[in-house]
Amino acid sequence: MRKSILSIFLFLALGLFVLTSFTSREEYTAKTGDRSRFIQVSADFPLEEEPVDRSSKDRIVSFSDVLEDVTPAIVGVYPSRIVKVYENRRSSNPLEEMLRRYYGLPTPRRDDDEEPEERKLPQGMGSGVIISPDGYILTNNHVVSDDRGNVADEIEVQLNDGRRVTAEIVGKDERTDIAVIKVEAGELPSVKMADSDNLKVGDIVFAVGNPLSVGLTVTMGIVSATGRSGLSILGEGGYENFIQTDASINPGNSGGGLIDAEGRLVGINTAIISRTGGNIGIGFAIPITLARNIMLSLVESGTVQRGLLGVRPANLTPDLAEAFGHEGTSGALVQFVEEGLPASNAGIRRGDIVVDIGGKKIETMNDLRLTVASMPPGTPVIVTVMREGEKHEFEVTLSDMENPYSLGAGSSGELLKGVVLEPISSQHRDTYNLPDRVDGVVVTDIKRGSPHIRSLREGMVIVEINDQPVEDLSSVASVLRKGANKLWTFDRGSFGFQVIRVE
Known about the structure:
By secondary structure, the chain is an alpha+beta fold. It contains eleven helices and 27 strands.
């Protein structure tokens, strides 16, 4: 009997302890801040108890009907290099071959009638999108070119029906990584293009191409971001404005299509970011609005003509915006204005903040670069800037990026190809240790591949050209002539003559 009474007493005591501990959780948590001991749902963070509505009969279970009209227009692209070899040129003696390779032993003579044999060496693989029934195909420049920018000797295209036909290069543009090729194969299936500016994050997209040469492959994802730039995928001077997607893109997908849920082309798949070389869900495509503009220019002229404003822009930071009395950080700050170029001629000044060009809102310096470069030389455009808190509009006629000081659009050549010249400023005098007695224009950069790289160098001052003093870029343009030009320069503390040739 005593044992029964004791058991009942212990049971009641245990229940009272448990009840007390539960009722004191909130009080204990509030006093100590220790939320690791108890898990509770606060009234401030309610849970929705209704499950997902699964009663709808309109759920999409397949996109096969959308893609069946698209996939026939996606092709495989196979570039090759043609080399010539002589079958009997190498000796069968390994020792003799080693002496020839490492010690310069002469190559044995071949018969005069011996003809070299041509061999085709595969250069890679990629994809392409048929844009028109007559055979125009959009792809990437890096698909049809090698690492040095040389175009493949031969390009073959594998069509969806199994045919393999030879393609010709219509044109290519390294700065956007776009190339246009063409095949003659009768009436071909083609895709419709949609305005990629309408894409929004979360839109469903499909990457269609020929990854790793396994054959036509479709992967699905969403638009992860738009307007991606500053990734250095296209190198210095490239125009990056990528669509980011998690649709699987792998080697061989380059040049293939990024397709929206309506079966329309919205981008050209171009690159991935990966530590392994394979897809990890960070892929990039060139927006079709940009690719289409490049394609039209390449088809019409074989080259891309880009407009030039003549300013050096920068992005606005909160501190810069406050210092310039500008609300927000939208816009591109003008850090430098090139004398003699359209912006300077129109009255735009250093310190202006460009907020609109031709009706297109400018949010960043990349917006400014892309907007101006997408317009052909000679285009008249209204540039809206904020200056000391007030809005100003300037009418500007863009010049040619390849020939900044030409009066007309579409001319070829450049002021000094690959050479950046600037009027001497106090900052230049400090940077390059230039004395006050030296006037002219200073070389601030020479691009790789410039024909003047042996004659000019960074920090060199051009004082005279063809015996005429030069003080700014417009005066340089006025005295330069085709052929040999005589330069009187100041470099490393001494004066001297240089000769450059302008084609």
